[in-house]
Amino acid sequence: MRWDRLTLGIGFGYALLAWGLGFGAVLPSLRDEVSMSSSLAAMHGAMFGISLILFSSFGTRLFQAFSNRAVVVIGFAGMTAGGVLFGLGRTTPLTLAGATVGGLGAALFVIVVPSIVFAQQPSTATQAMSTLNAFPMLSATLLPIAISGAAAVDISWRFAYLAPVLLIASFMFLVAGRSKVAQAPAVEPTGLATILAVPLFARRWLLMVCGVLVELGTVTWAASIMREQGHASKGIAALLTVGFFVGMAAGRISLSHILRRFDMNQVIRVSFLGSLVSLVPFLLGPGLAVRVIGLTTLGLSLASIYPASITRLFELHHDTAALGRAAALASGCGVTFGPLLLGAISDMVGLGWATVVLPLFLLAGLLLASSTPLRRGARVAQVSPA
């Protein structure tokens, strides 16, 4: 993997995304100040997923009209502005507006980055994607610590959230502001419907949806689960989620080394199986210590699924722009429906029963991984549903 200013800037961009959209760590504090239902609270995180779905489904002309550099710049501006608006908002419409602007910017960034990375570092794309996806985990590790620290010294969570948004955005601008952004080679455009009609691609795409849904559902609601199910205090509940992000970061940093020894499909199967096992102590306990161990191992187990899933999609076709939109659509479905399902079911029957969603989708992902043989280097040269 080659480190340059653009690659480092993309890493900071992912860190900004994770911090700015890290609503799970701040939702308990926000809901103490602003009255809102669980479904409405979940809508903050869902705006990112909805934006991914909209842009990936209907944004083909937009991405053809603008260069990758222009899309990255617009996305960066949106993430920064959205984070500031959310952090300053003291009413639900304002915080939702901030989440919407940040989600739109983050969606643009996420859709175009895989294409940039695969064009810029084609021989080390898997390592690059897994390493870059460790940046948001490192950022997300520090967010609950900052929120807990602010509560401990009686400082507003808003300052602890806002200051790093501006700091990370400044670093990204200084590091990569003048970098040249790789543009994927021009190819005949491929429609998403055409690609998703291929059974092998559809199975890999659905597997990615399952992994992202569980990851984002956990990220958004982990602090609330620790507080409501584990009976932790507000500040401690956010702090106890740190293990999840530490596990995710460690798993993604080590993924490229793991793939040198094990087949990618084996890694994905073990990831889903390990996540299923880890959910038991996280959701059921007993005690906070057991829940923390379960949440940490859950993060470690889940870490490989997203970067490995993207690599498996990009193996199947030459139109990286279309593949980027397909991957973003999968992420959008997971980001949107993971937190929303938990929030909606929580409003109806309580958070404890709502968490049943997580093992159900992990089981679905495991079944998809077990039914999808992987031959390294397999490629769908002519996209056909046959």
Task: Describe, in short, the structure shown.
This protein is mainly α. Helices cover 79% and strands 0% of the residues.
Question: What's the helix and strand layout?
Answer:
Blueprint: H1 5-20, H2 23-33, H3 38-58, H4 60-65, H5 68-88, H6 92-120, H7 125-132, H8 134-152, H9 157-176, H10 192-196, H11 199-228, H12 234-239, H13 242-259, H14 264-284, H15 287-302, H16 305-314, H17 320-349, H18 351-354, H19 357-370
Question: Describe it for me?
Answer:
- The chain has 386 residues and is mostly helical.
- Helix content is 79%, strand content 0%.
- α1 packs parallel to α5, α11 packs antiparallel against α19 and α13 runs parallel beside α15.
- The longest helix has 30 residues.
- The protein starts with a helix and ends in a 16-residue tail after the last helix.
- The C terminus is likely disordered.
Write a concise keyword list for the protein shown above:
386 residues, mainly alpha, 19 helices, 0% strand, disordered C terminus
